[in-house]
Every structure is written in C-alpha cells, then in structure tokens.
Design goal:
Blueprint (H helix, E strand, L loop, with lengths): L6 E7 L4 E4 L19 H10 L8 E4 L4 E5 L3 E9 L2 E3 L2 E3 L5 E3 L5 E3 L4 E9 L30 E4 L9 H4 L16 E8 L8 H9 L2 E3 L7 E5 L14 E2 L4 E3 L7 E3 L6 E2 L3 E5 L4 H6 L5 E6 L1
Parallel strand pairs: 12-20
Antiparallel strand pairs: 1-4, 1-11, 2-3, 3-10, 4-9, 5-8, 5-10, 6-7, 6-9, 12-19, 13-14, 13-20, 14-17, 15-18, 16-17, 16-19
Length: about 300
C-alpha cells in the first residue's frame, strides 16, 4: 500500500497544457505502450539537478502559457526550459535557478518568452502513482496522470527520502547560473534514411534533405508536424501497420513529414522515410510554430 504523502502541490492555474513527466517508460513497445517522458529531456534533467533530485524524478512540463501552483509545505523549486517570467506570490524571482517557495505561496511560471515548454522541478520530486514504472502522462494512450486542471493536487516527494545516495545527488545547486540551452532559431534535424525511403522518389529524398520547412502550429507531444514541400511517393500501395520508433519521420497522404515525439504510437501504416537522432529531439521540443526546419543526413 502506498503511504500517504506528507504534502501536495495544488494547481492554481494549469495553463494550456501542463503534465507530469519523468524519464518515461521505455521497453514496453512490444505491448503497444509508448515511451512518453519529458520532451526536452536535458532541460528536465538539469532542473532536477538544480534542486538536488535524481535526473529521472518527475517534474511538471508546461506548454507555452506556463502554470501556477501552490505547495502546502516549504519547497525548493526551479523553473527552466523555455524562458519565462517566474514569480512567488507575485514577486519576481530567478528563472533557471533554485528558489525557496514558502508553504502556501503561489509559484508561477509565466508565458514562454523563448521556447515552448518550461519545466518545474521540486526538491523531492513529484509522486503521483506510477504506471509501468513511470509517472509520465502519455496523451495518446491515456496512461499516467491526466493533464492538470485547476484545483488538482499532485503529491510532493520528501527530499530527505529521495532515491540514490546523498553524495551522488547532493543538495540543491547554488553556485552561479546554469547553462540552459536556448530555443532554436533554426531547427536542424539529422536523419538516418529508412526503413521505407525506397517508397519515395529520388527527387523526394533530395527535397527532404535540402528544402526549407517550418514547424506547424498543429504540432504536439505526439509529433512535430511540418509545413513545406510534399514528398512524392514511388509506391502507392497500402503499407501494413508496422512498428515505429521515437524520432521516426512518417509521411502521411499529404506528403508533409511528421517527426514522432515521445507520445507517438508504437505502430503506423504510413511509410517512414527516415529517423531523427534522439539527441536532436530536445530542440524539437522547444521549436515554436513557424521555426525554420531543415533535415540533413546524419
């Protein structure tokens, strides 16, 4: 039986989309369960490090408009990822650095000024019930905690009981500003062609690797949609549904590439022209609609 948590985080303003995310639940694709997890994994890890958590502790991931939360015990927190104004009870505090939030005070991450997704980490982590070893919300499958709404509560972990030896994780960092990566002015995604690149014409493959695309406003945690030239197929028959991986570039009937992100389906029936290297996907998480996008050969 799960013990009753000592404290909760109360959601005052959920923003456009705020979810609980950790390192995800890899290893279940054979059962139809996707990976999920923080889209900007390096930002989530850095936020955790700054409050003394293990790198995979659960955090809040916001989208564009931020959120506001109120802990019912004092807690050290950090807001990082997308640049945004940060306030405690209306008072401006540092972005990207640990701040102390008193019990009952409102911590607010404002609308993103640069980038798209902010990450709120709290000393001790967040502890909603885990599903298949992860506390991440998966928007496609519905696994994990639901996207947060006003009035919701999320259990806060106890910093004194966080997993891992204290000498490894250490106390919250306090020595100078952290090196947060900026949002991409131009998103460059390295591509390994295949497994179905032979379903496209040679000119289509040249177009993929040379044309300018833009990030579509219809992008989400499932996939980054693109605006730009369509890719012409050399084969027009139906493709039986087959497994797809994180970073797969699927090409639907309109010919515009879609890069699968962390909440992607585990199978798909449209041809995958290539796969983006995982290390590049953090930039995709912070690319705002309209950002110039180029695919290059990995």
């Amino acid at each position: 039986m799960t013990p009753t948590p000592a404290a909760y985080l109360h959601v005052v303003r959920p923003g456009a989309l705020t979810t609980v995310q950790d390192a995800g639940r890899p290893g279940w694709a054979h059962l139809g369960v996707g990976r999920s997890g923080a889209l900007d994994a390096p930002a989530a890890r850095l936020a955790n490090r700054l409050v003394g958590n293990p790198p995979g502790a659960a955090v809040l991931e916001t989208t564009l408009t931020g959120c506001a939360v109120r802990p019912d015990r004092p807690v050290v927190a950090v807001v990082g990822g997308a640049g945004c104004p940060v306030r405690v009870d209306g008072r401006p505090v540092a972005w990207g650095e640990p701040v102390r939030v008193p019990a009952g005070a409102v911590l607010e991450a404002g609308p993103a000024v640069t980038g798209l997704r902010s990450y709120l980490a709290f000393a001790g982590g967040l502890e909603p019930d885990a599903v298949l070893g992860s506390r991440s919300a998966d928007l496609l499958s519905g696994l994990g905690p639901a996207p947060l709404g006003a009035g919701d509560t999320v259990p806060l972990g106890d910093p004194a009981k966080r997993s891992g030896p204290a000498e490894r994780w250490g106390p919250p960092a306090a020595a100078g500003p952290a090196a947060w990566p900026g949002a991409p002015v131009e998103l460059v995604l390295p591509v390994h062609l295949g497994p179905r690149h032979d379903w496209f014409t040679a000119p289509a493959l040249r177009t993929l690797l040379t044309a300018d695309y833009r990030v579509s406003p219809h992008s989400n945690r499932i996939g980054l949609r693109t605006e730009g030239p369509a890719l012409e197929r050399s084969r027009t028959e139906e493709l039986p549904s087959e497994g797809v991986v994180l970073g797969a570039i699927q090409v639907p009937p309109d010919g515009r590439p879609v890069v699968f992100l962390h909440d992607h389906p585990t199978t798909g029936g449209y041809p995958v022209v290539g796969v983006v290297a995982e290390r590049a996907l953090a930039g995709a998480a912070q690319a705002v609609p309209g950002t110039r996008l180029r695919f290059v050969r990995a």
